Amino acid sequence: MAGTGLLGIIVLCLLAFIGSTHPQLQMNFYAKSCPKAEKIVRDYVKDHIPNAPSLAASFIRMHFHDCFVRGCDASVLLNVSSGEKNAVPNQTLRGFDFIDRVKSLVEAECPGVVSCADILTLITRDSVVTIGGPFWKVPTGRRDGVISNVTEANTRIPGPFDNFTTLHRLFSNQGLDTKDLVLLSGAHTIGLAHCPAFSRRLYNSTAPGGVDPTLDSEYAANLKANKCKTPNDNTTKVEMDPGSRNTFDLSYYTLLTKRRGLFQSDAALTRNSTSLALINQLLSNPLKFFYAEFAKSMEKMGRINVKTGSEGEIRKQCAFVNS
Ligand code: HEM
Ligand SMILES: *[C@@H]1O[C@H](CO)[C@@H](O)[C@H](O)[C@H]1NC(C)=O
Ligand SMILES: *[C@@H]1O[C@H](CO)[C@@H](O)[C@H](O)[C@H]1NC(C)=O
Ligand SMILES: *[C@@H]1O[C@H](CO)[C@@H](O)[C@H](O)[C@H]1NC(C)=O
Ligand SMILES: *[C@@H]1O[C@H](CO)[C@@H](O)[C@H](O)[C@H]1NC(C)=O
Ligand SMILES: *[C@@H]1O[C@H](CO)[C@@H](O)[C@H](O)[C@H]1NC(C)=O
Ligand SMILES: *[C@@H]1O[C@H](CO)[C@@H](O)[C@H](O)[C@H]1NC(C)=O
Ligand SMILES: CC(=O)N[C@H]1CO[C@H](CO)[C@@H](O)[C@@H]1O
């Protein structure tokens, strides 16, 4: 009898342990509940991104913004009047309609099963792979949040004028370290930026001529002559990695070492010795080393404060919480 009692206690402890464990993301979480989900996403991306490769940049940035505010829970996709989309850093995001189309296809296959948070994470990875960039594993099982708060987005997402200390603090708040900061910033090897993100470096520095002395003077002159021709041009877009904005290569890091990083936040990465050493390490290794390290940091970012199990919900439409 004593044996049964002990067994009972062990079983109870095990049950309590399982109950208290926060469910983890897992590979192919939808294998039983919606076996075609990941393939539907992948096929749509493979069919459509080649005609719109610049969306890959928008998606990886959107995923980053999502994860930095209340975890990777698709809160960035919500259309609410004071939501994250309204935050300053969000005003230049594109591709919401693309996500809505993928969600509709997945909903048609298995209604109410696959989260928008997972769909955004998968679209991001598949888009980057489609433009020839790195592959990373995307375990799934994220659930969607119901809160999107513009103030939180503005305070948690780093900005282009932030110094190294601030960047380090904002990443550290998310459980990301200096290595993650350097690697994930490498996403600036693709995509575009609007002039207001950097034109104060061209016009508004206290140095003579108004040009930020930490920016290569030839590059600055070129940007002023051909791109951001006035201090308040809000519409012109500039390649962050000129000449290879759809190619996921190492040239972003090369530019940093030539003082041609576009934002103050890019330039800041060369000003801390730990961070600079990481940049040099990436540059002295083959591209596949960067890809492998980038993959690890992306996987880590994709796990930030995820909602799992019974937390949150599975949204029916990515732009709205379920009523
Ligand atoms: C380290 C702090 C970061 C800062 C301060 C920052 C800031 C910015 C800014 C200001 C833009 C230009 C937006 C515009 O004017 O349209 C931008 C673009 C972009 N960012 Fe970042 N970013 C950071 C980190 C990241 C990370 C971690 C990722 C992804 C892993 C990322 C991916 C991108 C991409 C791909 C674009 C181009 C978007 C497009 O072409 O639509 N950034 N970033
Ligand atoms: C959500 O808002 C965006 C613009 O902010 C718009 O393009 C999109 O159509 C809206 N989505 C829905 C489902 O209303
Ligand atoms: C948004 O977040 C801020 C900062 O956490 C908080 O002060 C504010 O009350 C929140 N707004 C809403 C509408 O929840
Ligand atoms: C970095 O920026 C923050 C916020 O603007 C400021 O308080 C801090 O003094 C700056 N740190 C350095 C080392 O410049
Ligand atoms: C330019 O600098 C002045 C004074 O430092 C500041 O008031 C103004 O807001 C700055 N403008 C821009 C676009 O950064
Ligand atoms: C650009 O945006 C700034 C700040 O929102 C505004 O003050 C300025 O008038 C705008 N410039 C143009 C040309 O629209
Ligand atoms: C570089 O940043 C790290 C944080 O990543 C900090 O501990 C270190 O003191 C910084 N080094 C210098 C030289 O500023
Ligand atoms: C893409 C997107 O949703 N952009 C929104 C960002 O915030 C501004 C200001 O509220 C909105 O007008 C945009 O629609």
TrEMBL record:
- State how the cofactor is bound: Binds 1 heme b (iron(II)-protoporphyrin IX) group per subunit. Binds 2 calcium ions per subunit.
Q: What class of enzyme is it?
A: oxidoreductase
What are the binding positions for Ca(2+) 2 in this chain?
189, 241, 249
* Compartments where found: Secreted
How far does the signal peptide extend, from start to end residue? 1-23
Task: Write out the GO biological process terms.
Answer: hydrogen peroxide catabolic process; response to oxidative stress
In terms of domain of life, where is this protein from?
Eukaryota
Its Enzyme Commission number? 1.11.1.7
UniProt: heme b binding residues: 188
One Gene Ontology CC term in the entry: extracellular region
Concerning InterPro entries, the annotation shows: Haem_peroxidase, Haem_peroxidase_sf, Peroxidase_pln, Peroxidases_AS, Peroxidases_heam-ligand_BS, Secretory_peroxidase
Keywords, ordered alphabetically: Calcium, Disulfide bond, Glycoprotein, Heme, Hydrogen peroxide, Iron, Metal-binding, Oxidoreductase, Peroxidase, Secreted, Signal
Cystine links in this protein are: 34-110, 67-72, 116-318, 195-228
The yes or no answer to whether the keyword ATP-binding is present is no
List of residues binding Ca(2+) 1: 66, 69, 71, 73, 75, 84
Q: Which Pfam families match?
A: peroxidase
Residues where substrate binds = 158
Residue ranges annotated for the Plant heme peroxidase family profile domain, each copy included: 24-322
Q: Where is this site: Transition state stabilizer?
A: 61
Q: Which reaction does it catalyse?
A: 2 a phenolic donor + H2O2 = 2 a phenolic radical donor + 2 H2O
Which residue positions are annotated as catalytic?
65
Q: Which GO terms describe its molecular function?
A: heme binding; lactoperoxidase activity; metal ion binding
Give the required cofactors.
Answer: heme b; Ca(2+)
Homology family: Belongs to the peroxidase family. Classical plant (class III) peroxidase subfamily. Belongs to the peroxidase family. Ascorbate peroxidase subfamily.
Role:
Removal of H(2)O(2), oxidation of toxic reductants, biosynthesis and degradation of lignin, suberization, auxin catabolism, response to environmental stresses such as wounding, pathogen attack and oxidative stress. These functions might be dependent on each isozyme/isoform in each plant tissue.
Supply the name of the protein.
Peroxidase
